[in-house]
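Extended Data, panel c. Modelled sequence:
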Amino acid sequence: MAEGDNNSVYQLAAETASLEEQLQGWGEVILMTDKVLRWERAWFPLALMSVVSFSFLMIYYLDPSVLSGVSCLVMFLCLADYLVPALAPRIFGSNKWTTEQQQRFHEICGNLVKCRRRVVGWWKRLFTLKEEKPKMYFMTMVFTLAVVAWIGQQVHNLFLTYLIVSFVLLFPGLNQHGIITKYIGMAKREINKLLKHKEKKNE
């Protein structure tokens, strides 16, 4: 068991080091993005939502076709992949890279690797469920996709995408400042109160 844990830790460290090497040119940008997403300053959430809202308003105004939208997105990613590693050291200054920044960059890469492992693990569990319990897999997939299709039919697709993107971008900050934990705790307390009240009525 210990040997398996050691192999897992070693593999995690190797994957993290490999990702660090791949993203080295993006280091300054990733650290700045991390600060914005974790709301290190009070005005970061407002600035973040302003950028997201403006971007979606432009998409709504221009109303591009799917092909045009995908092409522009891929073109933007290609330009960023080419320009960011070249311009980032000049903008942020490569000589300002400190031990603290390197440690934070290492933590971010480690978290990204863990997230990737979780996604792969969920994907494998889904196929395991398909092999072991095909009926449950079929019913779960049909029900889930039907609910998603119904939501997509009720809500405008662009607005739904806006809500999803906004939640994903705000989630790190909400989690960092304990807002999600606070409201989950409040919801649990309310549910417990309702259950206790129901038990008293039954008695």
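Residues 43 and 150 are 36 Å apart (CA to CA). This feature is highlighted in the accompanying rendering.
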